[in-house]
Amino acid sequence: MDNQVLEPSLYVIKGIAILDNDGKRILAKYYDPNTLSTAKEQKVFEKNLFNKTHRANTEIIMLENMTCVYKSNVDLYFYVMGSNHENELILVSVLNCLYDSISQILRKNVEKRSLMENLDVVMLALDEICDSGIILESDPTAISYRVALRNDDIPIGEQTVAQVLQSAKEQLKWSLLK
Amino acid sequence: MMGMKRDKKDEEDASGGNPFHNVEKTAVLQEARIFNETPVKARRCTHVLTKILYLINQGEVLGTTEATEAFFAMTKLFQSKDVVLRRMVYLGIKELATIAEDVIIVTSSLTKDMTGKEDTYRAPAIRALTAITDNTMLQAIERYMKQAIVDKSPAVSSAALVSSLHLFKTAPEVIKRWVNEAQEALNSDNVMVQYHGLGLLYQIRKTDRLGVTKLVAKLTKMPLKSPYAACHLIRMVCKLIEEEESAGGEVTALMDYLESCLRHKSEMVIYEAAHAIVNLRRTGPRELAPAISVLQLFCSSPKPALRFAAVRTLSNVAMTHPAAVTACNLDLENLITDSNRSIATLAITTLLKTGGEASVDRLMKQIASFVSEISDEFKVVVVEAIRSLGLKYPRKHSTLMSFLSGMLRDEGGLEYKASIADTIIAIVEDNPDAKEAGLTHLCEFIEDCEHTSLAVRILHLLGREGPRTKQPSKYIRFIYNRVILENAAVRAAAVSALSHFGATCEDLLPNILVLLQRSQMDTDDEVRDRATYFYSVLSRKQAALNSQYILEGLQASLVTLEKALLNYVQHPSEAPFDLKSVPLAPVIEERHVAPTGQLDGGGSRATPASVAAPTATRLPATATRQDVYIEKLSAIPQFDSFGPLFKSSAPAELTESETEYVVRCVKHTYAQHMVLQFDCTNTLSDQLLENVNVAVEAPEGFDILVSIPCEKLEYSVLGTCYVALSLPESVLSSTGTCSATLKFTVKDCDPTTGQPDSDDGYEDDYVLEDVEIGVSDHIQRAAKASFGTAWEEMGSTNELQETFSLPAIRTLDEAVRNIISFLGLQPCEWTDKVPEGKSAHTLLLSGVFRGGYEVLVRSKLALSPEGGVTMQLSVRSGDAEVSELVASAVG
């Protein structure tokens, strides 16, 4: 039965996952030691989750006694999981925060390639959003401020050719879009 | 180095933009050597570190040595000033903290960062430090943590609060000292700090109800800025309401607060409050109304999650208060076509619960259009709804049945299929009109069923129900097909089912015998054994044998049977083993379903599983309470001559629980004797009791045979004394009341050592409450699979009928419970569940009276118009006096 009073606790997030358009994991974190604690279970769950969600973009689904909210863009799928008794809107707020922070970090260029290139900062952002299941911060601006401190003045010797080209491309694109 | 880069670039192109496509563990760990180079190449190191973290995240497992090496290499990176690199190091520390050894080596570096000037380092450093801290180190950083909690930077403060919450699990005592800091954080301007502060404060005060009450009282007056904190507060309020309720406290103010939250500006908080109100146990229609109207509004929100949340909560309310949800029917109708299938499904199932009979057909058609698109979890929800619908509108069974059989044919997991089968079984049980159709659907299902356990259950059901249908022969084909085509477990079940047909339907017997004969050639031992056994029983063509050895299963408790057999084998005797000497297994009472569940017929949810597999409801083969008693009693030589133990009652308290001496009584019934077992506890630490016995004044006809005292009763050590009674010749006088007094010699003693001060004691006694010997003490519960057959078989020789009026009992449910507890009989065919809204009910009970007389009781109950319940009780048993005694027990 569902008729139970929720135990007041800050541990509300059971997991956060970012998958690509083949359903493969890019990043995933599971915070509850009692659910999906082994890598194998997690992979099975993600496969199942992806199969159920990649066709219809309808934001919310219940799966394996968890409420999962999700969002997708181009070739990326973002998921936030919580207990099936959890307030769905709290989960959605975390999902929105995740998506918006990443969007800010990637300068609105939310797609796999750009995410992979900035994987380090994305990892940091994930860490700033949720700490072992507790929502740490829900404001995307605060998150991107805390993590996206990448200086653009990298010593040229350490930049790879690809990076130089990429940043040139970026600048060109933005100047055209404006 | 250039070459490597080019290689990497090629890979990048090949893998569609994933620079980490071909990362390999050993290679990456090799690369990690770069960490040791000075000066630190921040970019390269960041990249390698990212790779390591990526690998771990992908599920790659690092060994302890590998992790430790990587960890120590990583510590070198503290030299770099690069911000991103430093923060990746923190992440790395957290990831490796559980695998690598000697991680505390970085404590000082982290402490330096956490107290340093650089704000961007401080917060994550605190969190990384938490990951490597153990209790002993916590003392050392306590001062810094307390400072950090009240730091003016919100990030630092939040990090410290959240870390405190994590540490609370291992070191609650230390964290509890930080209560003042947490209190200060609660007043912070930053929403997240406020939220985390509240979380920590609650965690600290959780066990202290007064503290929580004060905290809640304060917070409900000041509006919380953070919606998260408001949600958390609502949950605290709910918990408090539940606790206060059970303690009989006053909760109106708290309820008012919840209602006021329905007008909060954040949707999250409004929903949390509505959800809380509908889930509270005390909520009635008046409190429900505002919550429902909020949820109704949410139903037309453009946000799918909000619609989902609203309809899911409404669907829960529909279980308990269907009337309250009817107001939302129109909104729910609109959601049936929602693009999110989960929302549509929930809307439909809610409508099925609240809607009228007329809308059933239409709704079912709509579900059928998309049932294949939803997840198994939701299909189960749909099936549950259909089940309660089937119980509510029996006339709709054909629509529902054909829908369910369609679902059975679709793809689906075991849980889903089992829930459908359960539902069909429940409908079949409940509604005789649906039986034939239901069984036919199940027959078709097992033709192509990949789940052995399910097939076995259905075969069992077919064996039980099939023979009683109009045309039993048509099921034989389906069952025998199983014998030919399936695995051993299913074949064995099919053979058993066939034998049931043979035992019940005489005209089919010759055919069944042929089929059983064929099964005797089976390759599997179990199948062959069963076939041979049933063949030989059936071929004797004796109804009594059939009913005893085929239709009724084994009723003896398995553990005791095992012991008895072992004993028999160890002490061989000429006489054959007598199964009757093994006591019957007490039938395990089903747990009471929560009262809320019963309202919509959901109360039947506990039964279907047991319908199909009655054996499954028996306890697993562990020693039961009765087995423990048997062991204890058989150790006392005086009781040897009484024969096997027939029944032990539940312990009854003969004293208040807080008195000087606590005594509990268990009544053990034998064929002609009764043993009263008194479990005594001495709760006075300065007394030693000796020669403790219970003086019993037996009622008329009972004789006290022997009283076994307890020699010594030390402080808080359980002692037992016994009184054995012989039961009266006449069964009719088997009930009565014994007054009991505890008698003993008191010696004062030293409370610490328990040694008596002197050898002199004085006699004393202590009056106990009376021991009641009722009819139920003489009756053992025993289930009958088919009450009707047993009733007919028993015949009306010793039948007794009486009519009672029970003015004090107001509902049929209450009457049923009282009768069962008075008589101590087992309800049969699930007649102990009274369907909602009926004014008459028939309760069927069965059991065995001591001495082995079967007792069957049929009790017709009706609500009388002037209040109270009228009951007509018919008793049949193997003995006229037993019938009379049972009939006289109620009243």
Automatic annotation (TrEMBL), chain A:
CDD domains: Zeta-COP. It is found in: Cytoplasm; Golgi apparatus membrane; Cytoplasmic vesicle, COPI-coated vesicle membrane. One of its GO terms (cellular component) is Golgi membrane. Its main location: cytoplasm. It is a peripheral membrane protein. Coiled coil: none annotated. The coatomer is a cytosolic protein complex that binds to dilysine motifs and reversibly associates with Golgi non-clathrin-coated vesicles, which further mediate biosynthetic protein transport from the ER, via the Golgi up to the trans Golgi network. Coatomer complex is required for budding from Golgi membranes, and is essential for the retrograde Golgi-to-ER transport of dilysine-tagged proteins. The zeta subunit may be involved in regulating the coat assembly and, hence, the rate of biosynthetic protein transport due to its association-dissociation properties with the coatomer complex. Belongs to the adaptor complexes small subunit family. This is Coatomer subunit zeta.
TrEMBL record, chain B:
GO terms for biological process: endoplasmic reticulum to Golgi vesicle-mediated transport; intra-Golgi vesicle-mediated transport; intracellular protein transport; organelle transport along microtubule; protein secretion. GO terms for molecular function: structural molecule activity. The coatomer is a cytosolic protein complex that binds to dilysine motifs and reversibly associates with Golgi non-clathrin-coated vesicles, which further mediate biosynthetic protein transport from the ER, via the Golgi up to the trans Golgi network. Coatomer complex is required for budding from Golgi membranes, and is essential for the retrograde Golgi-to-ER transport of dilysine-tagged proteins. Oligomeric complex that consists of at least the alpha, beta, beta', gamma, delta, epsilon and zeta subunits. GO terms for cellular component: COPI vesicle coat; endoplasmic reticulum; endoplasmic reticulum-Golgi intermediate compartment; Golgi membrane. Residues 25-540 form the Clathrin/coatomer adaptor adaptin-like N-terminal domain. It comes from Daphnia sinensis. This is Coatomer subunit gamma. Transmembrane segments: none annotated. Residues 1-22 are annotated as: Disordered. The keyword Cytoplasm applies. The lineage of its organism: Eukaryota, Metazoa, Ecdysozoa, Arthropoda, Crustacea. Keywords: Cytoplasm, Cytoplasmic vesicle, ER-Golgi transport, Golgi apparatus, Membrane, Protein transport, Repeat, Transport.
